[in-house]
Design goal:
The chain is α+β, with helices and mostly antiparallel strands. It has one domain: Outer membrane efflux proteins (OEP) (Up-down Bundle). The strands form two sheets. Strands 2-3-5-6 form a four-stranded antiparallel sheet, with no helix packed on it. Strands 1-4 form a two-stranded parallel ribbon. Helix 3 runs antiparallel to helix 4, helix 5 runs antiparallel to helix 8 and helix 6 packs parallel to helix 10. The longest helix is centred in the C-terminal third of the chain and has 73 residues. The protein is elongated, with a radius of gyration of 41 Å.
């Protein structure tokens, strides 16, 4: 019974482990979706937007009322009898004051702070575009590493077979011992190459895990069955209007200009007056033979600011003029950024086209030629008409060309990632 329970426990553990391994296999789109949902750096922009909305809510507040207390004397500086036995008296005075907000100005201020939400959204998309480019680089690096490991395993099998044949013919003088040692050294080179590639694979997994906010040392298996060159990049629709709408770092300038326009309207609202009221209450003690009571007086006053006064109006007028210059400068900066981006896109696209043609020629013409050379030498060596030296040389050249193909593919994918980042294309 105990052995049966142990067997069941081991079976359950194996099932869980197998599910975990399967769960670690990611397609590129799954990696990007996970970054979009879980990356902690992207979560800051939601908080910034909440902050700007809280600031907008605060703009609807009124100014705090003020209260004052002090002494008042009537009449001031006179100690003469005012008649009826009344002399000048000092009075205790209480003052309350409240200024009313300019509701139109509050609405403009609220719209100004709320406009930051669009800039935060732009910043999030811009940062996401950068993170996606970094993730794609790491993903393609892992993809190339996996393909190279498969290639090394295949070439290692061929080399071991070649060594086995050579060792069998050594006793008959049909193979040279130095060439066998050289072939065995190539096995060591392959092993060294495998170690470096596995290190690259682990580094790429750590980068993707960090971007997805996962433990950096967690196992991550990518999907190597997909054709990474299946999707092409089209730049025919790319123009200045596309970039101003799609490239969020460029679109942010438009949103900044909109915020500056709202701030300008807010500054122009300073030209409108602000109203308020003041209420004073005074208590004056009366001291006379007939009356020993106190007398109360009050004063109510409406107030209005005069913002057209030249010593005040020059402030908001100068601010409005300053923001005009800022808007013009940002428009010029946006135009320059659009032109530079169009140039970068065209340059990357031309590099991508030439790299694709060169890779196709390398794959369809160069590698098959080296493969035929190796097969011819291997056939001749198998029939005792060729030498191990020539066969080993042909094997080595074919192996290096196949590795070079993946290096070229890696360079092509990097150009593709840069082009997609310029276009902000997921």
């Amino acid at each position: 019974m105990k052995n049966k329970l142990i067997s069941i426990g081991l079976f359950i553990a194996l099932v869980i482990m197998s599910k975990e391994v399967c769960a670690q296999t990611y397609t590129l789109q799954q990696v990007l979706d996970s970054i979009d949902a879980h990356n902690t750096g992207l979560q800051q922009f939601v908080l910034k937007t909440n902050s700007s909305f809280a600031e907008a809510e605060a703009s609807s507040a009124w100014m705090a009322p003020t209260v004052g207390i002090g002494m008042s004397e009537f009449p001031y500086g006179s100690g003469k009898d005012m008649g009826g036995g009344m002399m000048s008296r000092k009075m205790l005075m209480l003052r309350l004051q409240q200024m009313f907000p300019n509701f139109s100005q509050q609405r403009k201020k609220q719209a100004y702070y709320q406009s930051f939400a669009a800039q935060n959204a732009d910043d999030r998309e811009t940062n996401k575009n950068m993170l996606f480019a970094k993730a794609k680089m790491a993903y393609y690096e892992a993809y190339i590493a996996e393909k190279k490991l498969t290639l090394i395993n295949e070439q290692e099998k061929q080399l071991k077979l070649l060594i086995q044949i050579a060792e069998g013919r050594l006793q008959y003088g049909k193979a040279g011992l130095p060439n066998i040692y050289k072939a065995q050294a190539k096995l060591g080179d392959l092993q060294s190459m495998r170690i470096r590639i596995r290190s690259t694979l682990a580094r790429s997994a750590a980068v993707m895990n960090s971007l997805m906010s996962r433990p950096v040392n967690k196992t991550l298996q990518i999907d190597t069955t997909v054709n990474v060159l299946r999707e092409s990049v089209n730049i025919l629709t790319i123009d200045s209007a596309y970039l101003k709408n799609k490239r969020t770092d460029i679109r942010r300038i438009t949103d900044e200009i909109h915020s500056l326009d709202l701030k300008q309207q807010m500054a122009s609202g300073m030209s409108k007056p602000v109203f308020g009221i003041t209420w004073d209450n005074m208590r004056m003690p009366l001291s006379s033979p007939e009356n020993n009571h106190s007398m109360y007086m009050f004063s109510a006053m409406a107030m209005m600011s005069i913002p057209i006064a030249p010593w005040f109006s020059k402030e908001y007028k100068s601010k409005i003029r300053s923001m005009d210059f800022q808007i013009q400068a940002m428009q010029r900066m946006q135009e320059d950024q659009v032109q530079q981006t169009l140039g970068n896109i065209q340059s990357d696209w031309l590099n991508l086209q030439s790299a694709q043609v060169a890779l196709q020629v390398f794959q369809t013409k160069v590698i098959p030629a080296y493969a035929k050379t190796y097969q011819a030498n291997l056939s001749a060596f198998s029939e005792n008409t060729g030498s191990i030296y020539e066969t080993l040389t042909a094997w080595n050249e074919l192996t290096m060309k196949k590795i070079e193909y993946y290096d070229r593919l890696s360079d092509l994918l990097n150009v593709k990632v840069m082009l997609e980042a310029e276009m902000q294309q997921e």
